[in-house]
Design a protein that fits this description.
Layout (H helix, E strand, L loop, with lengths): L2 H25 L5 H37 L2 H35 L6 H39 L6 H36 L2
Helix pairs in contact: 2-3, 2-5, 3-4, 4-5
């Protein structure tokens, strides 16, 4: 073999070996930056959604107290605040769906099967959170419409209000649960990629 042929073979082996080493090291813990960025932003947004929905639930208790005392002005003012917060929650949900989409797209770049599975579980929980958030928003909208009508002097069915409040509380518990499960899945992900 000529000297040029030997150098070419050595060069090809070095490039191939370097590529294999990079792929191997990437698989041992390398996480795509897009995944990491989307994950961190998504976690912050999810926690914000949880906080806002918990605040709304507490405000609904106050609204009920104002109504029982006949303080309709305060009840209506607080109802308006809850409606604004509901819009903020919907806006946050749109942002969360974007981050979940980014995580999903970069999932195929994770070489470690266990890490990919944990990430997929977290993504599934975030999607479930979004689904429950849609239900929450629907029930909250119905309740706020009913309360507004009541405060405007129209009568309403107390059973409907109780049902809606129970449904809202159920959705908030589910949102909290899915957020916690998503966080636990990402904790497992971290343990896997940081071995």
């Amino acid at each position: 073999m000529s000297r040029k042929t030997v150098l070419l073979i050595v060069f090809i082996l070095l490039v191939g070996g370097g590529y294999a080493a990079v792929r191997f090291l990437w698989g041992l813990g390398g996480v795509p930056q897009a995944f990491t960025d989307a994950r961190l932003k998504g976690a912050l947004i999810s926690q914000n959604i949880v906080n806002l929905s918990n605040e709304s639930t507490l405000d609904l208790v106050k609204i009920n107290e104002y109504e029982v005392r006949g303080n309709y002005t305060e009840a209506l003012n607080l109802t308006t605040d809850v409606i604004k917060r509901s819009q903020e929650i919907r806006d946050q949900a749109v942002e969360l769906s974007k981050r979940v989409e980014e995580m999903t797209r970069s999932l195929s770049d994770l070489d470690m099967l266990d890490a990919r599975q944990a990430a997929l579980e977290s993504i599934s929980n975030r999607l479930a959170l979004l689904s429950r958030l849609i239900n929450y928003s629907g029930y909250l909208g119905q309740l706020l419409d009913t309360l507004r009508s009541n405060f405007a002097g129209k009568t309403y069915d107390g059973k409907t209000v109780s049902f809606l409040i129970d449904q809202i509380n159920s959705e908030v518990r589910a949102i909290n649960s899915f957020n916690n499960q998503a966080g636990q899945a990402m904790d497992r992900f971290d343990k896997i990629v940081n071995k």
